[in-house]
Design goal:
homodimer, alpha+beta, Arc Repressor Mutant, subunit A, Beta-Lactamase, 2 domains, six-stranded antiparallel β-sheet, elongated, DNA-binding, transcription (chains A, B), GAF-like_dom_sf (chains A, B)
DNA sequence: AGAATTGTCCCACTATTTGGCACCAAACAA
DNA sequence: TTGTTTGGTGCCAAATAGTGGGACAATTCT
């Protein structure tokens, strides 16, 4: 901060818009300014004057940072034309995408979700036509679910699976549905709705951003699920909240939906996703 | 610099080696250190001790920067586990990919290429089954080529086109070849080799990283071309050097190949590409 | 339980960054 | 062309922002 602790109220008033909200007393002004500069360029401001204005830094300081960032490849410079995000950022972005450990990232979020709902929370990914359970937090209602991390399940009969399907082209839905529902339904076992109805459901789920499972995978168990996306806006995982029917009346599911979706989006953001 | 005034001449000598070449970067130590830190994490070093060691910064300083970077989303922190590249980097990486103006980036490189070869240089991208000429630098040999920026040409009969095809799955080659070579060859007009031979050629081009055009598009004109890739390792453009046959004997083409390829790779690097 | 690593403070010192200014080069407008 | 604006580069005295040592608590490993 430019402001000294001895400054008068009048001066403080004049400081106004410059650095508005964030007065986080960190000890890395130059670094933070540099990062702000990057984001400024990302926002499309490529001229020195505009950047200096946006950051509230004088021309010389701005130029100093700009040339350092260019030298390091974080910005690309077209003399007398402007600045653009540089190749290094692309590389780091790719690396970031690779080294992201989904489970560790998601853990705090699903823990929070488990905490507020009291139900069992799952995290899963798609792996050749099936759901693969990556993580699970048992509910606090005493009842235990059969699911285990490392387990596999059909896509079309589980909440997680349906959430994962929301990210696929609708053309693939039917094949996956067929995969889950063999020609001869095992007597007495639950199963998803027949194709036309199923398609209708998925279409609705896409619109609302979360999916339901009404005892289709296991009798007496209902769940609500939502897809997790990465920086490329691809669905890479899904989160679900599951519980026994008595704890999961229809109206609670509709309340839970947006909450699960919000959790999924929070994870997505940690994966580099940004809202459309 | 971190070095105290008490350092010996010997240490000074080692310091010079350490950051030799970068005599320029002054006035932004904190920023540069922060960026170095990012690259350190990108390199897979996620523990505080390792990072501090790699950067040569004391623990307290390292931690200070780390927490700032985490606060800004450039790093992701899993307490007592380590640091990873953060979501912000993914976002910036995506933005960088978008806002990259291929032509402006490539210009200096193809100018250099035109300069050293004296021939006409082209830059082009693929656009639904055709080459689209984005930029052209006329040769200095007096002869003028018909090509114009903004023009479209078949993929399979041009050097640029073949270079672009090198990045496609071989399964698509035949269709594109057929698209270029209609059933009835227009009498007297040049055309690419027939399919089996053509396929053989492309396979060889893939291996060597650059392609040739032997008067297949225009009689009397030969060219050498190489593909340009972006940060995702996808072929997004191609560069070619073209000239009249007398200036393009076979042996010159083999000399030119690696040069054109090098230029294409230089552009690729500016687009965030890194060697395999 | 002990050892090793990490997260979090604090604080005096000074090296690092600041920002004003001045000059030149390019770009743009007329 | 000329005049005007914006961009690139360098210098330098001033002081702020950053440094790094150290002490302590929390956490994980073994």
């Amino acid at each position: 901060m430019v402001v000294k602790q001895t400054m008068s109220a009048a001066m403080a008033a004049m400081e106004q818009e410059a650095d508005a909200g964030k007065t986080q007393g960190t000890g890395t002004q130059t670094l933070l300014r540099g990062l702000a500069l990057l984001e400024c360029v990302a926002a499309g401001i490529g001229d020195v004057k505009g950047i200096a204005a946006r950051l509230g830094t004088p021309r010389s300081t701005t130029n100093r940072m700009l040339s350092s960032l260019v030298a390091e490849g974080y910005l690309h410079h077209i003399p007398y034309k402007g600045y653009l995000l540089g190749p290094k950022l692309i590389q780091l972005g790719m690396k970031a995408l690779e080294q992201r450990p989904l489970v560790a990232i998601a853990r705090p979020h699903i823990e929070a979700l488990a905490e507020t709902t009291g139900d069992t929370v799952h995290l899963g990914v798609e792996e050749n036509g099936e759901v693969f359970y990556l993580d699970k937090i048992p509910g606090t209602r005493g009842l235990e679910m059969r699911s285990r991390t490392g387990q596999r399940m059909p896509l079309a009969s589980t909440g997680l699976g349906k959430a994962l399907m929301l990210g696929m082209p609708p053309a693939r839905w039917q094949a996956l549905h067929a995969l889950t529902c063999p020609a001869e339904p095992p007597a007495g076992r639950p199963r998803p709705a027949d194709w036309p109805v199923f398609q209708e459901q998925l279409t609705r789920y896409v619109a609302q951003g979360w999916a339901m499972d009404l005892e289709e995978n296991e009798l007496g168990i209902r769940c609500v699920a939502a897809p997790v996306r990465d920086g490329r806006n691809l669905v890479v995982a899904a989160v679900s909240v599951a519980s026994a029917v008595p704890y999961m009346p229809e109206d609670r599911m509709t309340t839970l939906g947006p909450l699960v979706r919000a959790t999924a989006e929070a994870i997505s953001k940690d994966l580099g996703w940004t809202a459309p």
